[in-house]
Amino acid sequence: MLQRAEFLNENMPIRGPEAAVLAELATALRAVGHLKNGQPIPPASIDNLSERDSRLTETPSFYSKNGSVLVLSLRYCNLASLPESLGILTKLLHLDLAGNQLVTIPESIRDNRELQNLYLDENNLEALPPSVVSLNNLRELHLDKNQLISLPASIGRLARLKTLNARANRLNSIPDILGDMRNLEDLRLGGNLLASVPDSLWRLTNLKTLDLSENRLSAISPRVGDLTNLQMLDFGHNELTSVPEELGKLTGLTGYLYLSNNKLTSIPDSLGNLVNLRYLNVTDNQLAVIPETIGNLASLKELRLYNNRLEELPGSIGQLGNLLELHLQGNGLAAAPESLGQLRNLKELRLQDNRLASIPEAIGNMARLNTLDLRRNSLTVLPESIGKLSNLAHLDLRSNRLVSLPARIGSLPNLEKLDLRWNKLSTLPEWIRQLEARGCVVLR
Question: How far is CA 172 from CA 152, 188, 281, in A?
Fold first, then answer.
């Protein structure tokens, strides 16, 4: 029989029914090999846990205070079921059951009335149990990577819910009632089978994060512009042929905007209003041009434009003074504008798989550049100014038409890798050997 002292946490023993619940769970965990013979569920250390933290460790653990269990973590324990006695833990605030084999949840969970965070990711749930939607105090509900086909209309009872994550399920619709859950701030429904979303969704004006990526959406309602509190928005990997001008109303976007892997032939000028945006990804579309207003995105740190049909870049791209990474590979660029040299904070410039015959002399102004990828273009010459890139560590020149190289490359103090393969260099200059002698990897 387990001693009460084995459940000591915060200098207070777990007694009576709650101790019995932990003992029953420990028996189940020993049966599946997640606890050793005779071992109880270990208490979590207060040193690495706040009461708001629902993820303790990857091993079974619990946290208690004043003799009551407040947090229980049974992550990745191979459990196929849970005991009905779970409902006895009436003070439970956080329950983490992610990564098990649960097909249902005990009805008794409705008695965990104080529960605020519930993690059910990576289980085998095909439906959301009614007992879960009776938990009126829930703030976070995590359902990623299950087998859910739909969400019940009764989910609307969770009026205090702030986070609802149901990524990578089999949802083909979401209930209208979702639009009445006005406290939602984080809604992630990516990786499902949604061909449309209800108009009520655009009433969720408190949303800060909206993820509808990896679905089958062919259109976005202009009402997306009503979600003015959004900080992060993901429409990537859908079937969009256009995005509405109203996207430019989302001036609160500070994190990311993903429009990648769609069928876009253009993006609206209004995106230039997103002056607080830090990451914009419109890769893998059919864009022929980028609007000049892109230069207004003063906070942008990373811009990804590769695998489109671009033949030129707007001069305004040089105004993006805070940009750290620019990815342009896989377009049809025949020239890079001189304005690139205005991107003085740029750390990564990827121009591979284009049709560039030259690089502007102004590239030498990019003093912070660490990576320059020019492979698979039509370059016959490089500007001498490339030798001014004192922070350059990786220079990829393979598969061009270069017949000579600027000697100043050999003086770049931080160069770690230089790829010269598949060019037209008849002889290699002596400074190549000097680079190799100091440890630079030269592929030739």
Answer: 13, 14, 26
Tokens 């509808």, residue located:
212
CA distance 312 to 334: 7
Q: What is the rounded average pLDDT of the residues 122-145?
A: 96
Measured distance between the N- and C-terminal CA atoms of the chain, rounded to whole angstroms:
71
Helix (H) or strand (E) holding 302: strand 302-304
CB–CB of 278/298 below 8 Å?
no
- What pLDDT score was predicted for residue 7? 42
Per-residue confidence (pLDDT) for residue 31, from 0 to 100: 94
Burial 19-46 (b: 16+ CB within 10 A, else e): bebbbbbbebbeeeebbeeeebbbbbee
DSSP string, 208-259: SEEE--SS------GGGGG-TT-SEEE--SS--S---GGGGG-TT--SEEE-
Residue pair 311/287 in contact by the 8 Å Cβ criterion? no
Question: What per-residue confidence (pLDDT) applies to 312?
Answer: 87
What's the pLDDT at 56? 47
Q: Hey, what are 362's tokens?
A: 């102004």
The pLDDT tens digits for 229-283 are 999 999 999 999 999 999 999 999 999 999 999 999 999 999 999 999 999 999 9
Partners of 372 in beta bridges: 349, 395
Q: Give the residue from 151, 114, 157, 152 showing the smallest Cα distance to 134.
A: 157
